[in-house]
Amino acid sequence: MARTPAPGTRERILTTASRLFYSRGVRAVGMNQIITEAGTGKNLLYSHFPTKSDLVAAYLLRAQEFRLAGARRARESADGDARSQLIATVAEVATLVQHPRFRGCAFRNYLAEFPDETGTAERGTADAGDDAGDDAAPTPAAVARDFLAATREELAAQVAALDVADPDRLTEELWLIVDGLFLQAAYRRRLDGRVGADAAVDLAGRLVDAAIGDR
């Protein structure tokens, strides 16, 4: 008789895998290591996550939930005007990257590790059948790209609410600041212990105010 999974087994596996993937990188972490550290059997792990790709996608979807909740709280805590909410969006990232255990953006990290991964769905079974694509799981790369694209679109929507003369340019400038915060904080603390968080928020404010003044 098959063993009944203990309550919370999937969550324990995913929590362990998320910690390892984020701290060490996806490529460096094998399924056997996750099985050992999660204290679960091989068959039990694969019953929840049939492939490593499934597990990585779940890790990124969990990171997505965390990031969306943080961005939402930032907007809700800001004053009601569009400018304050926009600056709060950048400031939330600036706060995040100063965390002692910050190791970069999970989505950008994944795409840097696997720059050539393409496709929207992937399953590890050989007998998936002709209709497998209808309910196939998203690939990790699809999760990462879709989230980053949606995040940029949200930023663009916030900029559009300002009714500035050149919203595309301001969106690109602010997106570069966000990108820069994630990328430089991932390595800079290890070199000199600092990140440019305050400078980034100040720069975002100046760019927004300049764009508002030009309209």
From TrEMBL:
Residues 7-67 form the HTH tetR-type domain. Keywords: DNA-binding. It comes from the Bacteria. Pfam families: TetR_N. InterPro entries: Homeodomain-like_sf, HTH-type_TetR-like_transc_reg, HTH_TetR. The keyword DNA-binding applies. Signal peptide: none annotated. Residues 30-49 bind DNA. This is TetR/AcrR family transcriptional regulator. It comes from Actinomycetospora chibensis.
